[in-house]
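Appendix B. Raw example, untouched.
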Amino acid sequence: MPRFNPFDYIFILRPLIVIPSWNFLLIGAYLATRQGRFTIEIILGLVIYTCVMGGVYILNQIMDIETDRANKKLFLLSAGYVPKTAAYVEMAVLWLVACLLSLQFGGVFLLFILISILLGVMYSLSPIKLKGKPILDTLANGIGYGMINFAIGWLLLREFDPAMFGRFLPYFLSISAVFVNTTIVDIEGDRKANEITTGVFLGANVAHVVSTIIMAAAIISAYIQRDYICLIPAAASFPLFVYTSVYILINNRVNRKATIASFRLPGLLFTLITAVLYPIYFLVLLVVLVAMRIYYRQRFGMTYPTLAGG
């Protein structure tokens, strides 16, 4: 068994993919007030949502232990650095802390936190397992990241307003388009795992066209609302969506590099825009990335994360 290291229990939360949830929470808060300040409410909200999503990502890794072991990835659990029982305990503690901290923001806020946790459970846990259900996997990501995530940021600083979901529509669409493209590059592996994702169900050709149409709808929606926070990433990545769609229709094969670029570029741009809205966020991101570099170098002798996304 690998030797114990307390930092394993921090990095099992997968901070690199927690960052997008921070981005969308912060943007949701910005849309509510049009102010880019790190208030006590926002800091506490980030802590709460880190606990929520950290627990969700732990559950996802628990459910995927065997496939991760076969694919030699996400090895903190699959290689035994963190015992499975300890992972379950950490997940439960994280969700309990998130719920307790949420109480001070009121019942509606707590309800959205519970919905977020429930959606995460339904995404990974059989028999529902939305992760392996076509279309539903896309809707779960679009709603979870593009609606619920934003609503939680909004509710930190402003009362619930049903109209806020209209404000979040461009984000729901852009995140859904990006997710469809992520399923395209995983089609072969998902087929072997008997998971019928949107990409597997539609096939790469149709999935590329569908994601391009959805991203076009995101651009139109963002333009109508004059929401440049969403319009910039959506419009900047749209040529890649078009290119990958045309490429596969002409060559009858996926351009893997371009497809990966199409779903990484919006995330990068959302992160940069969020840091422009909240300048201190640059420092937060720097600390997280440097900490990850040090941890993975010291613990495993590897360079992670890298610019190539490895």
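End of appendix B.
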